[in-house]
Amino acid sequence: METTLIVFFLVLPLALAAVLPLLGRLSKRVLPDILANAVFFVLVVNAFVLGRRIPAGEPLILQASWFGEPLGLRMAVDNFSLFLLLAVALVSLCVGLYSISYMEHFGSKPAYYALLLIMVAGMNGLILSTDLFGIYVFLEVAAVASYALVAFGLGRDEVEAAFKYLMLSVAASAFILISIAVIFFMTGSLALSDVARSLAAMDAGPVVAVCSALFLMGFGLKAALIPFHAWLPDAHPSAPAPISAMLSGLLIKVSGVYAMTRIFFHVFGLTPALSMVLMILGSVSIVLAAFLALGQKDLKRMLAYSSISQVGYVVLGLGLGTPLGIIGGLFHLFNHALAKGLLFLNSGSIQSAAGTRNLDEMAGLARRMPVTAVTSLVGSLSIAGVPPLNGFWSKLIIIIALVQAGQGGFALIAVLASILTLWYYLLFQRKAFFGKPEERWKDIREAPFWMTASTVVLALLCIGVGIFFSPVVAAWIEPAAGVLGKGIQFVLGAWGL
């Protein structure tokens, strides 16, 4: 039973993506909408069901076989990977519902959903992988689908942004591949547990340092940490709004933060030097990206820079490496996926209605789009860390963890940058939704039902997770943090590979 549940995360989206272009010939709109969202809903349910079957602190392992003979394909679900699988499924479902109405004017829904499903399958495969080869392959599967989705509108800006994204991702993949090749040459294996065991038994400090630097550059590019962020402010605004939500809410976290964290914690082990490098990179990203967001007039570019800043909080918490710091980092990863997904979907609703992303051209939209205005306010306050929303608790945990660890300087940076974040999100709210609407906005109406419904769901999740943060942290975040906190001993013992 558990084996079937694990396979679902990979096989269901891939199977539907394979047949959707053919089924699209029977129905170009309704059937792709229903089938894609049915798969996303099943993945959400699957994550909850699987969560009840994972033994405390132990993983579920799937060994692929052919007529009884084991194959070199193994997948595992532990509390850390399950937490990410749930985040991917939840945001994907909201994005899928939003796409029902939003993608009407783009057309080609079967191709769009097929690419979206492939990207989801790539992220799920990366999360489930137990070896470096699997991580690299599924990283590329998700990336290739995302290139096509960024360029989906086929406009000049979209194609140019996708090309720039592709070129920088190729550089990131090269760094990752070189590091994997060096590790294979040293250890003769790519399985995470074998590599961890081999590296622990040999004196390979300098080589591990070089591989760590290569992984940091590769996954740092994928996560868009400063100074590896150049592709993100162009790619995210150019993509269709639901794809911007997927890229900013999920892909940079799974392809960048998750992969980097899994390798640094479970293969190399988090050393004090590596911890300090991650904390510095996280802090630089928090501050510089917040200032860059403050100066943006394009709504989606402002949200893109905000994503870089918030990923900095995640890396700062994880890089600290203490149990509370890891909890804060993972909780903020989850909260940012919800809130930033919500805000990018809202930006699509605004652009569809007003025909612009320029904040200086907007005013008084709250009178025409009240639901979008309220949900945008929830997302903005959540990311800014205003109580009692979910983002407040995760930032508070990170700051407390930094103070407890004697890192008062980093804590002060996190507090001041949070005030700066509140500043530019209040500017966004004032420019877009308050004031007297111009005459040209008189015919603007609220976004269609499915676009509005999906943003309401995400806003309610931001509020609900904030109010009930304690049980959420106890049920999902602390078990995931416990897996990371065990370091390389987790893969050496529990995975038993």
Summarize, please.
This protein is 77% helix and 3% strand. It has 497 residues and is mainly alpha-helical.
How do the strands and helices of this protein lay out in sequence?
Blueprint lengths: L1 H22 L6 H22 L8 E7 L2 E9 L1 H24 L6 H20 L3 H19 L5 H32 L4 H10 L3 H19 L8 H7 L2 H28 L3 H23 L4 H22 L2 H32 L10 H4 L1 H15 L5 H15 L3 H26 L15 H19 L1 H17 L2 H6 L4
Antiparallel strand pairs: 1-2
Low-pLDDT runs of 5+ residues are none
Q: Helical content, roughly?
A: over 70%
What is the makeup of the main sheet?
2 strands, antiparallel
Principal-axes geometry comes out as: globular
Quote the beta fraction: under 5%
How many individual β-strands? 2
Report the structural category.
Answer: mainly alpha
Q: What is the CA-atom radius of gyration, in angstroms?
A: 21 Å
Adjacency order of strands in the biggest sheet: 1-2
End-to-end CA span: 21 Å
